[in-house]
Automatic annotation (TrEMBL):
One of its GO terms (molecular function) is methyltransferase activity. Keywords: Methyltransferase, Transferase. One of its GO terms (biological process) is methylation. It comes from Actinoplanes palleronii. This is 2-ketoarginine methyltransferase. Signal peptide: none annotated. InterPro entries: Methyltransf_25, SAM-dependent_MTases_sf, WH-like_DNA-bd_sf, WH_DNA-bd_sf. Pfam families: Methyltransf_25.
Length: 400
């Protein structure tokens, strides 16, 4: 490890509450060594790794050029391998102490040779370590496991799209397909970090508990369950056109302890509204990442009639949407690059249409709503400002 320099050891920094924390700063040219060291020190100190940019003369050999140019291919394999490792529960089994190959293969009903190949692959990518016959997660793996919903959405939900990009490009080609259950589960999982806190902040000025939230496109139901658990409403109904998502939601109701306050229905919002009448004044509809789907799948006129029906009932509407880009936003770094770059591509290839905030606000105004409050995501989670939330009131006046 000659190319690692520990610049500051046994030092302390102050956190935002003024409490001292042990701190180590490491300078290195090697991303891999930085991650190994950060992993080893993770329980002892805050570790700052500073990567020293080192740009050797362009690789002269064929092998050097090959290794560099193959990096995206290797990353694609790694993303799918990590998703499989998480989604099968292997990561959880190893974290809970089951680290012997035969026991793992037995627990997960897997072929030991193939499992061994996957684990070996992840060792080489430094997501696992192998000591004698036991595997352990590295800090790098734990960091991935902490944000599993992003893998569930992008790889579990949209991974099947990637081999078909070529076929989706010709004029008149159909839209690409996705795994709807994984999309709903991943999206709701991500929402725990971004959209749900944003919705809670939109509702924080309310002086009375909402009566009922009707969640349009509820996915696996965990978004709505979170809002009810956080006492944002007395009860909730989740609607989703995908039967697999509603099955998953119904399977979780008891574990959330919300059987008396929550119910789920497999239906489109259009059919739900057509079947309902009466006084919805204490209902608040929620449309999180779903108006973009209705817009492309059923068209703007169908979307407008849904919105008009909600405002005519005297119901409010909470909306979460994502802008399709922003002038001046650097798409080459950070979350803009690692998440939104793919997000924009997959929306264009599947049956969804992102639209600007101005576009949405004009439609909401036309359909009888005014914007009561607006918010963006906590910038510590997402500083791009692309995702926004609106609380809309029916213009005729909301009667609590
Ligand atoms: C991206 S997920 C959003 C999940 C969740 N609302 C969230 O904020 O994380 C969109 C969901 O809307 C559902 N959906 C699409 N069109 C719908 C419609 N017309 N009526 C009801 N659900 C619909 C899809 O099946 C999918 O589960």
């Amino acid at each position: 490890m000659a190319d690692i320099v520990v610049v500051e050891a046994h030092t302390k920094v102050l956190d935002l509450d003024g409490r001292p924390r042990p701190f180590v700063r490491v300078l290195t040219r090697s991303d891999e060594k930085a991650s190994v060291l950060a992993d080893k020190l993770a329980d002892l100190a805050d570790v700052e790794t500073v990567l020293i940019g080192f740009h050797p003369i362009r690789q002269a050999t064929m092998e050097g050029q090959l290794a560099e140019a193959l990096q995206p291919v290797a990353q694609a394999f790694t993303a799918f391998a990590l998703h499989a490792f998480l989604d099968t529960g292997l990561a959880r089994s190893i974290e809970s102490g089951m680290a012997d190959l035969a026991a793992l293969a037995d627990r997960h009903a897997m072929d030991p040779d193939r499992l061994s190949a996957l684990l070996g692959y992840l060792v080489n990518e430094r997501y696992l370590t192998r000591v004698a016959d036991r595997w352990e997660l590295t800090g790098k793996m734990r960091a991935v496991a902490r944000i599993e919903p992003w893998y569930t959405l992008l790889i579990g939900g949209y991974g099947q799209l990637l081999p078909t990009i070529r076929e989706l490009l010709p004029a008149g080609a159909p839209f690409g397909s996705r795994d709807a259950v994984a999309v709903g589960r991943g999206s709701c999982g991500i929402s725990q970090y971004d959209a749900i806190p944003m919705i809670v902040s939109l509702l924080s000025g309310e002086n009375a508990l909402l009566g009922r939230i009707i969640d349009i496109g509820c996915g696996d139901g965990s978004f709505l369950a979170s809002l009810i658990k956080q006492n944002q409403a007395e009860a909730g109904i989740g609607l989703d056109s995908d039967p697999g998502s509603i099955r998953a939601a119904n399977e979780s109701i008891d574990s959330w302890g919300l059987a008396s306050r929550l119910s789920f229905q497999t239906t489109t919002v259009q059919d739900f509204i057509a079947a309902q009448s009466g006084d919805g004044r204490r209902d608040c509809f929620l449309a999180s990442f779903v108006l973009q789907e209705i817009l492309e799948q059923q068209g703007e006129e169908s979307l407008r009639s849904v919105l008009r029906a909600i405002s005519r009932r005297g119901s409010r509407l909470l909306v979460v949407e994502v802008e399709p880009g922003r002038d001046g936003l650097d798409m080459t770094t950070g979350l803009a690059n690692r998440y939104y770059n793919a997000y924009f591509l997959l929306h264009a290839l599947t049956e969804q249409r992102l639209a600007s905030r101005d576009y949405w606000e004009a439609i909401f105004a036309d359909c009888g709503f005014s914007v009561a409050r607006s918010a963006t995501v906590n910038p510590e989670v997402d500083s791009t400002g692309l995702e926004f939330g609106l609380l809309l009131s029916p213009r005729s006046g909301w009667v609590a």
